[in-house]
Amino acid sequence: MITIYHNPRCSKSRGACELITHAYNTANEAVEVIEYLKTPPTVDQLKALHAMLGCPLREMIRTGETEYKELGLDAVDVADDQLYESISRHPILLQRPIVVRNGRAVIARPPENVAALFG
C-alpha cells in the first residue's frame, strides 16, 4: 500500500502522484490518497509519520504559513506535543506531499524524492 498525503492545489503534490502512478508503481500496489486538508491527520498519525520520515519534526512543518507565526510555533522552546497538536488542528501546516510505503516515508519536495521508496 502506498499512501499519499496530498493537496490537489499543490503542483509538487500533483507531480508526486503522477510519478507514482505512471513511473514507480510498476507492481500496481494499492494507492490511498488522503487529502489532508479535508481529513486532517490525528496526533498519533502525525507521530507515526514523523517516525517513518526520520527527520527533525520541524521539517514536517510549512514554516512559511501564516498560522506558524500566529500560533507562536516559531519559538525554539515549543514542545513536540504542541507542534503535533497544532499540525492536526491546522493541517495547512503539514509539509506536502508526504508519501508512505512499506513503513518508510518521504517528503516529496521535489516529487522525485519518491524514488527513495522504490529503490
UniProtKB/TrEMBL annotation:
InterPro entries according to UniProt: Arsenate_reductase (IPR006659), Arsenate_reductase-like (IPR006660), Thioredoxin-like_sf (IPR036249)
Family the entry assigns: Belongs to the ArsC family.
SUPFAM superfamilies documented for this protein: Thioredoxin-like
GO function terms (MF aspect): arsenate reductase (glutaredoxin) activity
Domain of life (superkingdom): Bacteria
Residue runs in coiled coils: none
PROSITE patterns: ARSC (PS51353)
Keywords assigned by UniProt, alphabetized: Oxidoreductase
Catalysed conversion reaction: [glutaredoxin]-dithiol + arsenate + glutathione + H(+) = glutathionyl-S-S-[glutaredoxin] + arsenite + H2O
One Pfam family from the record: ArsC
EC number(s) stated in the UniProt entry for this protein: 1.20.4.1
Protein name: Arsenate reductase
